[in-house]
Every structure is written in structure tokens, then in C-alpha cells.
Amino acid sequence: MLFLQSVTLRLCTTFITLFGVALIVFFVIRVVPGNPIAMMLPPGATEADVARLTALYGLDKSIPQQFLIWLSGVMQGDFGNSITTKQPVLQLVLSRLPATLELSVMALCIAIVIGGTMALTGTRLRGSKTEAAIDIGNGMALSVPDFLWGLILILTFGVLMPVFHISGRVTPSLALPFSTNFYLTEAALRLRFDLWLDIAAHMFMPALALAIPLAAIIGQLLKQSLKETMHLDYVTLARTKGYSETHVILHEALPNAILPTLTLVGVQFTFLIGGTVIIERLFSYEGLGNMAIDAVINRDLPLIQGIVILFAVIFTGVNLLVDLTYAALNPRLRHA
Amino acid sequence: MKLNRRALLQLSAASLSLTALSLPVRAQAIEELVIAYNVNLPAWDPTTGPSAVNPTIQGIYQSVFDQFILQQPDLKPAPGILTDWGWNDDKTQVWMTVRDGVTWHDGSPLTAEDVAWSLARVADPATGSPIQFVWGTLTNHRVEGNKVLADVAQFDPTIFKWMYFLTGYVLPKAYYTSVGAEGFEAAPIGSGPYMVEKFERDAFVRLKANAKYWGGAPAFETVTIKFVTDAAARVAEVESGNSHVTLEVPYEEYDRLKATLTGTATPISDIGMIFLNDIDVMLDPNVRKAAAHAIDKQTIIDRLLKGYGVPIDTLETPEYDAYDASIKVPYDPELAVKLLADSGYSVDNPVKFKIQTTKGFKPKDYEMIQAIVGLWRKVGIEAEIETYEIAKHYELRAADQLAPAAFYNWGNSVGDPTTSTGFAMFGPSPHSVWDGQDLIDMIGPLWGEKDEAKRIDGWKKVDAFIAENALVIPLLQYVQPILSAPGVVVTPHASGALLPYLMKRA
Question: Residues of the signal sequence (chain B) (predicted)?
Fold first, then answer.
């Protein structure tokens, strides 16, 4: 019963949060300087032309009126049309979401692999020069922002050693037999490894740029947890049984030490999606972040609203999932 | 398997080799021309919405669609879809002759009916064309054989120039009306040198040559235009060989790469200028004139833009119809000091005002304003810099709320004085912040002047008046840097449009 109450309460607060985000975004983007009509006015436009275009895009009504019209559309699944592309906003953002999700997931996987390797190696070789080198590497990875990593990667693997693609998501000349926009996933499922390789070669550098700072966080936290765990009695007992140090780390210490890191990874994933905005722009990657920047530059109000709402849904959705999982796992709530 | 150092190295090498298989090969002859373009293409209809008035994407539109009249690389008009055009004697009607034998990309013939429909469509306010105020000056469009006629509701001497300017495109009547606006966005067809084969929004457009193009088949069978909005990524694209052509790269990178790649840097129709708003201290002619004479434009171009720019003293560039080389506003700091002294200002008692500028919207925009503020300080002007986004500039300018001075860039790819000096300086225009009645009185009669020589001469007089009274500060004509691989020859277009059709094999 308590579990059900908790779920209901959480769902209610999620909807209130989303409504609040929608309200704030709608009003703020209309109050900040720069309106889309002024941006499309050609030289020589008269006051009448301004009024005509303003009415054409429904911006002649009061902001509360515009909000109510927009909200009633949203309730029916209509987020309006983009001013610049003239396409339905919902269709546009949903078509870009898979690209961003695949990039974020790839970045997360790379971060886990690099961060995990660094943590395990640092723990295994604690006190050695290798651990010091890993700590220095972690510090550098954290100090340099992801877009700078992107530029370094472009220079290194795009220009000096042209191994990976610099821009885009797939080579334009390739025919794509896909029915969804989850290119990487669908290429694997269709066993089209030629396409998979091309898509991965496009995604690798932006994903790595996103992953490096996160890998450092994961590496630091996991190494710290492992070090603490290594001093616990059951680990000492394992050692006295004659297990090797590597076995002790991997089979005794890691299962317990990894829990705080896993929680962090869940939280960081939402931040990772936020970080795609700059990286997608740098690598001309056709995701949600790249679209968001264009929408802001062009003051495409309906599209900005749609993208922000989608980001909010992802953030609150992930948080809701975490909370529900916690509630489901918590015996006090589960059995109440 | 035991993973030792050697095995790890072998695995890494294998992975890299596999990845490299999917990459373009730099040294091969160009089969498919790849262009790293500096902006995204949001929509395909070249006549409605914000994209229609975005000068930077006109090059893509012009690859797929024909304009009514062809514009040559030097900005001059030439026969295109219209082979001949003009007014009747009393200028109450226009007539246009439509080229025979032109086909749309679907193979159907382009007729005078298409031209008349295209003109009537953008003249209809319901279509949503931002340039309706121009097209609406023609009414009652009708077809007689291969001629299109229309009545002149309001005489506009530039109407035929708009036919190779923003929104001046011929669209296929039958196709558009059958598929609708949405269908046209999904599968656009035109009569231009290239056909759209594949379009991934925010990523690329792949074009196939129109072998039946009336102007002759393009040199490259396939052209891919990648939308690479970041300048550093564009440089990397051409440097790595992933793209063959790119534009709008930093001048420092252009200088570095033109040794290994082919570089063209020619003046285009964009200019940099400082709007002066007739408020506060800008009402004092001495302050305005001092501000204009204190700027050493050539040195700024040499130091900040590596010499890539042409100083200008009016809002007309040498390619424009009303350019008058005799109008000069020389760099003269002594004169600036004297002018300010006449109004009671000096280095110790400087005149103060705000100057607004974008930062990074145009090459070295903020740095140029910093340099200008430094030069002004030496003569007794203390200007405070405020940076803003270009969107804010548009809004403030439309509301006549710009600061006393505001940096901006103005494009005028048809080179007519109405679309440069006219719209920028005519008080009632939403794009002008100078509202002086004397200037309004000078410009007013020129809008409808039917004698072309008299009209151009009138604009030259306006430019001279503006320069004499320092009502605006023209700074420079921009130079567009284009980098290309050795296998391709690029012909630059003074409008700034990068046209694949003008690219040939070396």
C-alpha cells in the first residue's frame, strides 16, 4: 500500500515538475531579447509586414493566451510546428532523440570501461608510480572540458592520423536500410557490420570526448571505494585464504565497492545527455543537442519548447525510475 | 587467450585497420565532390519562412532551384529561366519571356504558367513570404504563349533585381500543388543544376547532377554538402581530406592551409558597418564626424583580418550600382581631435557613449570594435562596449532602440542602392535607426524613380550626404575565404553563395 502511495505521489510530482518546466520555458523564451519575426524581416519590411508575419506565427496574442493554446495542443500530442523547418516539433525531436541516446550510451560505456580499468589498475598497483600516473591522468581528464577534448581528438584522430570521421553520423553515400533512427543498434541487429563500423567510426570521437571527464569521475570514485573495501575484514580473510590480489579485488572487493559508482553512473547519465549539446555541435552530429543550438540561434520558439520538454521528460523519467527502483527494493516499502 | 603486451598491440592495430576501411581516401581522384558547408539547411521551400531570407543558404537553394533571372559571379544579371524582361513604356506593366526547353527534375516541362504561378504565389500574403511586400507590387499575373505579363500596382525599380535575390525562385506549379507544402519539403524538385537525392536534416544533403540542365551538365555527377557549423571542424574536414571544399574558415587557418590546398579569397557583397542612432551625443555632428575620422580601417583590416577586407566609405561596395569612388571619409585623427574640441570634448574630457557589438558572429567583430574603441580613446571618445546576440540586435533595431553606436554586417547581393543605403538609412524602414527628416526627404522620391540614370545618381548624392554628415560609419567589405582540394577549381560568387555548379575539375 505504502509502495503504491509512493509511486502515485512520485508520478504526481513528476507531472507537476514537467508542467513547471513547460511554464517557465514558455515564458522565459518569450521574454528574453530576440524574437523570430525580427530575425526573418528582410530589408524594407514595413510595419504592416511585421504585423502580418507576427499574426501568421500566432505571436500577436498575449503570452498567457499563447501558452494556453500551446498547452491544449500538447495535451493532444501536438507540440506545434517548427518556425524554421516547418515540420511538426514532436516528429523532429523524436527523430533526433535516438542519435543522442546512442551517443550517450556509447559515451557511458566508454567511460565505464576506461574509468573501471583505471580504478582496478590503480588499486592493484596502489602505492606505485602507475597509480600516481593514473591519478595525474584523472586530474587532467577532469580539468579539461569535454569540448576541448573534442578538439584534441579531431586534431589527433581526424587530421594527424585520420582514423575516425570528423563530422556527421554516417557516410552520406551509404544506403541505409533502417526503419528506426537507432542506427547503431539496428545495424547490429541486422548484422550489417559494414554499416555498424561506419556509424561507430563516426560516433567514436564525440563519444570519447564526452566519456573522458566521466571516466575520470568513475575512476576516482571506484578507486576510493575499492581502497576502503580492501581494508575490511572479509577482504583480509580472503587474502589469508591464499587468493591472489587480483582475485581479491575482482571477486571480493569489487562487488561491494561498485555500488556507490553504479548510483553515480545513473545520475551522470542525465548530465551526459545535457553535455551532448556542445559536442554534437562540434562534430556536426545530427542529434538533439545540435538541433537545440540551431533552435536557439534562430529563436525557433516551438522547437526550443519541444526540446526542453523532452530533456525534462528524460531527466524526470530517469529520476522517477531510480526512485521507483529504490522503492521496489526497499523492504519497508515493498512489504508495507 | 592470454592478453600480453604484444597481443594487445596486435589487437589495437587490427581495430584501427578495420576502422580505417570505412574512411575516405585522400589521394584518390574526386569521384564525389564533398563540401563542408558552414550552416544547416532547415527547410527546402526557398520562398517562405526564415530560411528564405537567410543569405548563407542561398547557395544550396540555387543548386536545386533556378531563380527567375540568373545572377553571374560579378552580381550582374544574365538570362536564366527568363531570357528577356522589362516594363512597357509607361511602366504600368511588366513582361517576361520564359526560356523554352527547360524541364523540372521529374522530366516535366517548365512553362510560363510555372513562372506566373510562382510570382503570384509569393505575392499572396497567405503564402507567408517574408518578401511579399515586394512581390505584391505586381498583380494580375497572366500567360501569353511563352510570355508572362503582370500589372504594376506600385512601381518598384528593383523588381527585376529581386528576381535574382531572396525568394526569387521558380517552383513547379503542378508538382507543388499536387504534393502540397509538406510533400514538397519531403521531396523537393526544381529545375536547377542538381537534384536532391538524399537529405538528412542537420547532417548533409546529397545531390545528383541534372544532366539535362539548360545551362549544361554540372562537372561533378554527385555532390555531398555536409553541414559543418563549427569552423575548427571545417578546417579539419578539408585538412584531413574528408571534404574537398569549405568556406568561412578563420583567416589565420586560411593562410596556413592555402600553401597545401587551393585558396581563393575574394570580396563579397557583405559589409561591416556601425549604425549611429540619432539619440544622445550622436545628435552632435562633430561627435559623429570625429568618430568616423578616428578609425584607421586599413590598419584594422591588416592587423585583425590579415589583410582580408576592403575599406569602404559608403554603404556601397565597388560592385554595387551606385558606388562612387570619389566619396571619401579619410582617417584623420587630428581632424577628429579638432572636431571634438569644437564641441568641448578632449582626451581629458571625453565624450561618452555606448557601442553594441556581436562577438563571434562575424570574423573578429568584437576585436574590431575593441580596436576602434582604442582609436577613439586617443582622440577623446570613451565608448563602453556592450556585447549582444544577433537576435537581440534585430529586435532592438526594429524597435529603434539600438545604442548610439552599434556594429552590424549588411548583405546586399543584388548590389542595388535601395537594398543597402536605402533600407539601412531610410527613417521609416524598421531596419534604420537614423530618422533625420532631411535624409528621408532625399531618399523618399528615389523609391519610385523611373529614370534609372537619375535614380542611381540620386543614390550617389544620398551616399555623399551621409558621408559628409557621418550618419553611419561604413567599415569594410568582407572577403570570403574558400579552401579547396587540388582536384577542384572553385569560381567564387560575389554574393557569397558557394555554388557547386561553378566548381570544375582541375
Answer: 1-29
